[in-house]
Amino acid sequence: MPLESDVAHLTRAVLLATFVLSAVFGAIVHRTGFCTMGAVTDVVTMGEWTRMRQWALAAGVAVLGFALLGAGGWIRPADSVYADTRWMWLSSLVGGGLFGVGMVLSSGCGSKNLVRMGAGNLKALVVFIVMALSAYITLRGLTAVWRDGTVDRVYVAFSGPATLGHLSAHYLGWSAATALLVPALAVGGVLLIWALVGRDFWRANNLLAGVGLGAVIVGMWWVSGALGYVAEHPLTLDATYLGSRTGRMEALTFTAPLAWAIDWLMFYSDSNRHLSIAAVSVAGVVAGSFVHAVATRRFHWEGFRTTEDLATHLIGAVLMGVGGVTALGCTIGQGLSGVSNLSLTSFSAVAAIIGGAVLALKAQAWRLERQA
What we know:
By secondary structure, this protein is mostly helical. Helix content is 69%, strand content 2%. It has one domain (4-371). It contains 15 helices and four strands. The N and C termini lie far apart (70 Å).
């Protein structure tokens, strides 16, 4: 059993590694223009699939990496924050739809706005604050009560985690390793093949976005699930994931962590508040984007031009905060981290996010046509 000093040292290592990986994430997104909202916009408005292929490549790498870590015994997939025994289909659909609409109105999802904030965008700073507060209210406040009393009560329960891996093991009788690897090879392989099939995609930025961001997600699973795992904590004698806000193995996500970052800043003097993976990841993305923006001379201040622009971003930020918590994640949390688990809730959330974004883009186009 490790000593308290050992646990404290290991916790610092987990948080430092999280900051570094998050900074890499922020720098890659700023360099490559990776953006889920942008990918959907490109497809809807121009029929351009390059950024969607970036996302598919990142998801494929994350899916295969998570399965290899689990099958190799480095992490415990059943301890993942996405390994709930319930398929929260209604929460993910409603929350995902709200999030998808919100990210179009706010010019990007939570992670994209953190990247823009690091590059000097004050509009993104406003989105961050409002989204964080909305997420906090949906975690613990008024909209949390509404969420808990409505959509969260509708789900499909399973005997184990609602993931393709567990379902394969349960219904097909496969071993744990086989049940992890076979579905991962099928889903991840299809994503990789589809992403890489076009010659025009084979460019440095596209490969960096896909492989780089997918690898960051896999790295975070290792940091949280292997480096941060203590089989017997010296104080509680329980198995513990150090730095985890949920008590489970975590990777990158950017809805609830915005709320936890605000919470840590506001209650810094409270000895009961501890720095977590969630808060550190938010700071890391902003720092990584800032360093890359300054290094490439792309840092510049940007603000709202009109009152309507401000109002649109405020509405979008609220929808993302409420929707992201209700859907149990965002375009990164459910779209990459959750999908890497092959979680049913993640699949339905991603579908709803894309659907909400398409709906918002169509509505914007219709409004512009009417004004013209």
